[in-house]
Amino acid sequence: QNEAPLLDDKYWKLKEDIVKFEQVILRIIRFDFETEHPYKLMLNYARSLRLEKEMVQKSFVIMNDFLFVPEILTYPPQVLSCSAIYLSYKSSDANLSR
What we know:
mainly alpha, 4 helices, elongated
């Protein structure tokens, strides 16, 4: 009744290409899967600065947008975190001088 679809040569070629590209990517990153995500840092910075919830949310939105730009990922997570907070601050009418 529910038969598996037939897998043609096109499927197997695509699968082989995907595996090759995965291997290339793994070699490029030297199999290093330990990464420090900027979100945790940004949240810690936001707490230290006692930012309002709206500014923290806006910082998260900015960070999400950052991660769609591959060149951005060449910067350390600390820089990304601070940049997201800074842009959030500059685009709001908040005052950090408490």
